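Morning. Coffee machine broken again, so started the prediction first thing and wrote up yesterday's gels while waiting. Chain of 128 residues, entered below exactly as on the submission form.
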Amino acid sequence: MPPSGFARSGTLHDLVLRLLAGAARLPVLPLPSGVSLQPIDSGEVADRLAELAVGAPAGRVDDMGGPQIRPPADLARACLHATGRRRPIVPVRLAGKAYAGYRSGAQLTPEQAAGKVTFEDFLAQRLG
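Came back before lunch.
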């Protein structure tokens, strides 16, 4: 049985930004195609975990995702725009079981889009 309060969250905005910033050092941005992400603000995840930590044992709680489901290329364009950089985006189809799971949408939780902070909101707060 999972520990009390166990749940998954979407990819954190911070991680998406870190990955995109690293990739933007290249002359082109190679990004996985055929997948989507549902990034969420780390503060919102922390608030939820704090709620669960002080509450009664809850068993397996609902997963939690951000307010939008978007392909990495959209997130990259938002990041490039926010930083004033230009890079061509090159879609790359990745192989393997992990990416097959991503392509199937297994990491998404559209019915639990609990987050309110969009990736653009995060970028404005972080970079603005």
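The chain has one domain: 13-127. Going to sketch it on the whiteboard this afternoon.
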